[in-house]
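Researcher: I'd like a candidate sequence for this fold, 547 residues long. If you have to choose between options at a position, lean toward the conservative one.
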């Protein structure tokens, strides 16, 4: 019987082996000590000297995919690096613990062992059953046991994927949070990674965003500009400051500035009202790891799953404003008073705002209406004011009207006070470093050039912090004054007097305003509307009379 040495079969050439050791640990293997990276490393380290004679090999490097699934080789960075090194001739031998470490996909296994390995004259060794050494026994890869093992490894990945999906769905349906990073305004509970607790520092910013949008009428871009001016770190920068390794791949620049899109995401996320929505995406399959978006009706929604940062009514008002076609004056931060509320009652289209002869007009911009509805802004404001005043004098609507006005978002200065103290502490630290810098220069620890450069940088930082402190102080004082009461709303609640309109009042009371061709203004009130009740009653009377 022919005997085979450790370097190869009889008749085969003697080669020098440049070895690459491949190690993989998938997420589902994380709790199995037998499959740990360290254990695989130990097994490979012990096996290599037993299989190769001294002077006939060199371990070129390790390729370790930690936390990567083996169902596809395209998403394994180290596997792909190993493939490139084979193609470029850096290694000509690959050794793994067993086939499941290299593959969980029978198709990928077949292509790699039967096509790639022979094409690049590379040796592949799998230590555990089925043991494979393509140099000693090239036909082994075509054996039935290898094919069955590949199928079994793939089935294991499939069953694990199903179990993981079932577990995740069960958790989501129970209100458990399964995301990698807590939403801005929340933090993961140290005692339970699937539970969220309020992160009060960020929560104050979330509340301010909703208040500025609904109460003050700021646009999303205006809110972003205000937050940047106040020096408030955006969600990405805030997470990094907390030591969380978060990266937003879609962020522009360094990703540390607020933008309108970030503000919009916060204003439209129902989690801040206590409702958690998860399962918005799913992986195509256990082999295809691409994520696809699911329609809203397939999302998993759990109410009261987390502590609410804002009330349901405030979120509803923000959502209503978000759905409107809002226009902001060029260079301004606040939308026009009626922006998003007006519609043509004839065609349903939006109205255009224009100025002529010193007056502001709203007119239908569609070409189907003839004549096109049009109204002066001051007359429209007087009409809406008159309707609300009339409504406030009727018993039932007045009660609901008052409740809605009382429930309208107020102001809080405590979040700005916390931000003010934070910025003041930053300025004190900058001043302390600046004072110590002079001593370092005088003692010779830094050069004069280094001292001047660092001094200039710290002085600029202190100047920016001083400006931010001034802005925060002004914002805080205004918020505190507003918190003590709005005299106009107080007069309305006490005596039914309303001197002027605001966007926050419109958001609280009005669902929409329609303009007819004859100049009639139709107001859709969010509260009890007695006028509509009268019209409905008249319609019922006419219907019975015709019957």
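Model: Candidate sequence:
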């Amino acid at each position: 019987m022919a005997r085979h040495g450790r370097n190869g079969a009889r008749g085969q050439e003697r080669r020098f082996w440049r070895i690459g050791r491949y190690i993989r640990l998938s997420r589902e293997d994380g709790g199995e000590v037998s499959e740990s990276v360290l254990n695989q490393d130990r097994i490979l380290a012990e096996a290599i000297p037993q299989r190769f004679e001294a002077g006939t090999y060199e371990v070129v490097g390790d390729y370790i995919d930690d936390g990567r699934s083996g169902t596809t080789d395209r998403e394994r960075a180290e596997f792909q690096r190993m493939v490139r090194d084979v193609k470029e001739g850096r290694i000509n031998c690959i050794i793994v613990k067993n086939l499941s470490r290299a593959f969980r996909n029978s198709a990928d296994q077949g292509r790699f062992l039967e096509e790639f390995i022979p094409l690049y004259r590379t040796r592949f060794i799998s230590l555990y059953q089925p043991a494979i050494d393509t140099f000693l026994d090239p036909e082994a890869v075509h054996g039935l046991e290898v094919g069955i093992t590949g199928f079994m490894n793939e089935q294991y990945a499939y069953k694990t994927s199903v179990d993981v999906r079932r577990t995740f769905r069960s958790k989501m349906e129970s209100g458990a949070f399964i995301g990698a990073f807590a939403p801005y305004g929340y933090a993961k509970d140290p005692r339970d990674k699937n539970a969220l607790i309020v992160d009060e520092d960020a929560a104050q910013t979330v509340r301010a965003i909703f208040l500025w949008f609904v109460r003050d009428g700021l646009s999303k871009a205006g809110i972003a500009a205000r937050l940047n001016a106040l020096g408030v770190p955006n969600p990405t920068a805030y997470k990094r400051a907390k030591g969380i390794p978060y990266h937003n791949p879609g962020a522009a620049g360094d990703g540390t500035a607020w933008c309108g899109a970030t503000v919009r995401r916060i204003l439209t996320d129902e989690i801040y009202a206590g409702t958690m929505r998860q399962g918005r995406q799913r992986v195509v399959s256990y082999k295809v790891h691409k994520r696809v978006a699911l329609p809203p009706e397939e999302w998993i929604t759990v109410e009261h799953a987390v502590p609410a940062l804002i009330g349901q009514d405030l979120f509803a008002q923000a959502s209503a404003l978000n759905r409107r076609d809002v226009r902001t004056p060029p260079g301004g931060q606040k939308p026009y008073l009626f922006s998003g509320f007006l519609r043509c009652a004839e065609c349903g289209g939006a109205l255009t705002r224009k100025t002529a002869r010193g007056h502001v007009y709203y007119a239908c911009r569609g070409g189907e209406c003839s004549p096109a509805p049009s109204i002066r802004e001051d007359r429209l404001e007087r009409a809406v004011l008159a309707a609300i005043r009339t409504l406030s004098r009727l018993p039932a609507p007045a009660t609901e009207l008052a409740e809605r006005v009382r429930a309208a978002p107020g102001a809080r200065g405590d979040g700005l006070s916390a931000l003010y103290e934070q910025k003041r502490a930053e300025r004190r630290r900058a001043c302390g470093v600046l004072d110590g810098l002079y001593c370092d220069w005088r003692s010779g620890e830094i050069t004069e050039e280094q001292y001047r450069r660092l001094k200039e940088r710290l002085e600029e930082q202190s100047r920016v912090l001083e400006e931010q402190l001034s802005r925060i102080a002004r914002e805080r004082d205004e918020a505190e004054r507003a918190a003590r009461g709005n005299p106009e709303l107080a007069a309305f609640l006490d005596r039914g007097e309303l001197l002027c309109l605001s966007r926050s009042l419109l958001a609280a009371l009005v669902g929409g305003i329609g303009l007819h061709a004859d100049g009639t203004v139709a107001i859709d009130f969010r509260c009890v509307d007695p006028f509509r009740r009268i019209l409905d009653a008249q319609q019922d009377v006419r219907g019975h009379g015709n019957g």
